[in-house]
Amino acid sequence: MIELEGVPELIDPVMVAAFEGWNDAGDAASTAVAHLDREWKGEVFAALDAEDYYDFQVNRPTVWLDGGVRKITWPTTRLSVVRVGGDKPRDLVLVRGIEPSMRWRSFCNELLGFAHELGVEMVVVLGALLGDTPHTRPVPVSGVTSDPDLARTMDLEETRYEGPTGIVGILQEACTHAGVPAVSLWAAVPHYVSQPPNPKATMALLNRLEDLIGLRIPLGELPEDARAWQLGVDQLAAEDSEVAEYVQTLEEARDTAELPEASGEAIAREFERYLRRRDIAPGGHATESGDASYLRDTSSGRTRPPKPPKPEPGPPQGATGESAPDRPSDEDTGPGPEDSSGSPDSSED
């Protein structure tokens, strides 16, 4: 039984989760949750026991100095609450950590226990995968769910994926079996520039999340970072004629595939977002009520867990194995450079 002493009653709470590792190409998903935590001044209230879920030879703890005192940060998953003000206040429960090494069913059950105790109305899991998408075009973000009713009412795809999965897919299915509405949002990261960070993919995930949950998300410096990132990749591509030719091929394929999208729901969605950002000014910021009494586990050090060592080349990094027939089209996403099996049929739900 999970007891959350001192946590205030939340308003229409939504749980937003992301996990570093296989489901997180370019660190786009975990960076998105970190951005929400930073912009809305989230306060950690719980951390899962690292001993239960992590292999410390795979995700090693980090030793650091705090005023001359040596401390250890253990790889784990932490939960925080942000209180979002505005005309229609809504609270978020942020889950950020590393994909667990073991006991995934217990891991998901523990997160669902927190969701139940906090009255969470929906779980949104963010992920990112490597794909055949050009860096010069808008980042494709697909929204998938296992719930046919949710797919219909929220304009999502109903997942039909079969194959290897990561913690994002397991958590979504655990939510479905527990009767908790769950959605996965997947951003496609260009496989030829997969190194983190990828602020453009992070911003795309946040924009789609904003549409999904009806909150204005402050983007801070992300738009400027995304422009700088694209300019940097443009310069690198210009220095290599083969890369430049390949990018042009991806652009042509993407533009051809998305011609029907040029008018219709895509434009309407962008226009609605523009109006929302123009009309809703200071609202949508976390209130700093000084309500620190609901914190429970702040003694574990920094709220940002250390990054695990990058895996050897292969499917684990970046959801090349987190595949999905749920991707928008064959041109939008595709295999990573080391995993030809991560075809457009391999995006995860």
Structure description:
The protein has 349 residues and is of the alpha/beta class. It is built from nine helices and ten strands. It has helices spanning 28-39, 50-53, 104-118, 148-153, 167-177, 199-213, 222-238, 241-257, 265-279, and strands spanning 14-20, 43-47, 62-66, 69-73, 77-84, 90-98, 122-131, 141-145, 157-158, 182-190. An eight-stranded mixed β-sheet has the order 2-5-6-1-7-10-8-9, with helices on both faces. A hairpin with a 2-residue loop joins strand 3 (62-66) and strand 4 (69-73). Helix 1 packs across helix 6 (199-213), helix 3 (104-118) packs across helix 5 (167-177) and helix 6 (199-213) packs antiparallel against helix 7 (222-238). The longest helix has 17 residues, at 222-238. The protein starts with 13 loop residues before the first strand and ends in a 70-residue tail after the last helix.
Secondary-structure map:
Layout: E1 14-20, H1 28-39, E2 43-47, H2 50-53, E3 62-66, E4 69-73, E5 77-84, E6 90-98, H3 104-118, E7 122-131, E8 141-145, H4 148-153, E9 157-158, H5 167-177, E10 182-190, H6 199-213, H7 222-238, H8 241-257, H9 265-279
Parallel strand pairs: 1-6, 1-7, 7-10, 8-9
Antiparallel strand pairs: 2-5, 3-4, 5-6, 8-10
Structure summarized in a few sentences:
This protein has 349 residues and is of the alpha/beta class. Helices cover 32% and strands 19% of the residues.
| Number of distinct helices | 9
Uncertain residue ranges: 280-349
What profile does the largest beta sheet have?
8 strands, mixed
What is the overall shape? globular
Content-based structural category: alpha/beta
User: Which band does the percent of strand residues land in?
Assistant: 15-25%
SSE succession: EHEHEEEEHEEHEHEHHHH
Got a strand count? Answer: 10
Distance between the termini: 29 Å
Helicity, as a percent range: 25-40%
How would you state the average pLDDT, rounded? 79
Question: What Rg is obtained from the alpha carbons, in whole angstroms?
Answer: 20 Å
The neighbouring-strand order within the major sheet is 2-5-6-1-7-10-8-9
